[in-house]
Design goal:
BirA Bifunctional Protein, domain 2; 11 helices; UCP028451; globular; CHP02453; 5 strands; alpha+beta; DUF2461 domain-containing protein
Length: 226
């Protein structure tokens, strides 16, 4: 498997786009953009190939450069980053991976960005019953060295039906369960970046294995899959 790289000219193009975020400039430079977009798509495709060596990816989605400005105060027509998401195989695995390339603000993210109502309730019930396995996984030193602390939005006090004084309320009140790892432009442009992406995603596996187990069983530990 060859190792794709991200070119400095792609990063430079995104910097220029940030300075010239208008339709006239973009139309004049559309051929150049299409070339960089194709290169980034190849990079994302290779990330998917690497992921499939140790996980099962159902689909990859590269996001369009065009912004939906209908409900936004910011009316600039283009995103100033390129990104892709990778969804794990269906009901059996859950969760996903995300790669975001933006000058000075590139990052990887992984976990559960918007769990549906049923999944969110199931995760919260598990944490209410016993959060020790969950804490053990996310606080394991080698895991934490790569991914840091869990992140995500949450409710202010406690979700309906849960005790606000529960010892694990810090986790129970979360609505998202994600991890983020940031990278400098120098790191993004290095030859080893794709390997670093893959090693980072590989390191999240104990967390995904635990969450897959939670989301495919009931509170008695019995499978809910057909």
């Amino acid at each position: 498997m060859s190792n794709s790289t991200i070119s400095k000219s792609a990063i430079d193009f995104l910097k220029e786009l940030a300075k010239n975020n208008n339709k006239d400039w973009f139309q004049e430079n559309k051929t150049t953009f299409k070339s960089h977009e194709a290169d980034l798509k190849s990079f994302f495709e290779e990330v998917k190939e690497h992921l499939n060596q140790h996980d099962e990816i159902e689909k990859m989605k590269m996001f369009r450069i065009y912004r939906d400005v209908r409900f936004s105060k910011d009316k600039t027509p283009y995103k100033t980053h390129l990104a892709a998401s990778f969804s794990r195989l269906g009901a059996h695995l859950r969760g996903g991976y995300y790669v975001h390339i933006k000058p000075g603000e590139s990052f990887l993210a992984t976990g559960f960005w918007e769990p549906n109502k049923e999944d969110l309730f199931r995760i919260r019930k598990e944490l209410e019953m016993d959060a020790s396995d969950f804490r053990k996984v996310i606080n394991e030193p080698s895991f934490k060295k790569i991914w840091g602390d869990i992140e995500g939005d949450g409710v202010k006090t406690a979700p309906k039906g849960f005790d606000k004084d529960h010892p694990d309320i810090d986790l129970i009140k979360m609505k998202q369960f994600i991890f983020v790892r940031k990278f400098s432009d120098k790191e993004v442009l290095s030859k080893s970046f794709i390997s670093e992406v893959d090693q980072s995603f590989k390191a999240i596996r104990p967390y995904f294995d635990l969450m897959s187990d939670i989301l495919t069983t009931n509170l008695n530990g019995e499978s809910i899959l057909d």
